[in-house]
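Entry for the shared binder. Reason: the reviewer on the internal report wants the predicted structure included alongside the sequence.
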Amino acid sequence: MKRTLPPLNALRAFEAAGRLGSFKEAAAELHVTHGAVSQQVRLLEEWLGASLFERHNRRVALTPAAKAYLGEIGPLFERLSQATERYGVPETVARTLSVNAPATFTLRWLVPRLATFRAGHPDVEVRVETSNGPLESLKEEYDIVIRGGPDTFYGYAMRPFLSEERLPVCSPALLQRIPLRVPGDLRQHTLLHTSSLPRLWPDWLASARVPALRPAAALTFDHFYLTLQAAIDGIGIAMGPTALVADDLAAGRLVAPFARPRLPSRSYCTYVPDGKAGDELVALFRSWLEQEGPMKR
């Protein structure tokens, strides 16, 4: 006989949210985000063709039909848990760690290193979302938020893990075509800019004592990772953040024609909600970041 079963992940989210009376508390218990619980509940409501919750600010209340439904399935989840323990199936399941980080940092530093974390911790699923907005503007809570700093935000514990400076970088092929011996030689080159960081080149040129220098051309991009890619492709010279171009310099995709001056820059820091500061998985990932990106002493 064919069984009529709803999506089990959606059912699990509903049972936790209904029992606890809160999507946020259900997300904490299931080790997922508030948004993931909300999405699964909506999926179950669509499957059933009925509303399950009445939303009230920070709390949710079951509809009468949902309350009766929960009364039927709640004991089933308890029996399933007991059966799992009784027959020796390991309790541990894959944990999901939610991380929010800037796009360029994620693309050029975090993603190339995630394989090493996954190799050492195959039972941990890392969900990365990118955002360049301020921490206080995030619409959901993450286990770890990566931003510049050090800054202080109420309700968050901060730790720096990666130092950074900025200096000019370009492709080796470009340097062979048009050599750079002194900062004044930049007059013969195209300078690459990022619209969100308009002061990088003026500040560096002032530090290099050529503040009035006019380059042969200039190109401006709306995302920093596009600016760096243009430098790799030999289009011009970018102001490269040392942390994010270290792999390209080591591989020879980029070169730094001038070792000095270097512009100081904010460090990368982890910001963890106070309620998650004692979480073992959060501490594990935080420590791994600190090992991968030592701070300049």
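Summary line for the report: The domain at 95-163+268-292 is CATH 3.40.190.10 (D-Maltodextrin-Binding Protein; domain 2).
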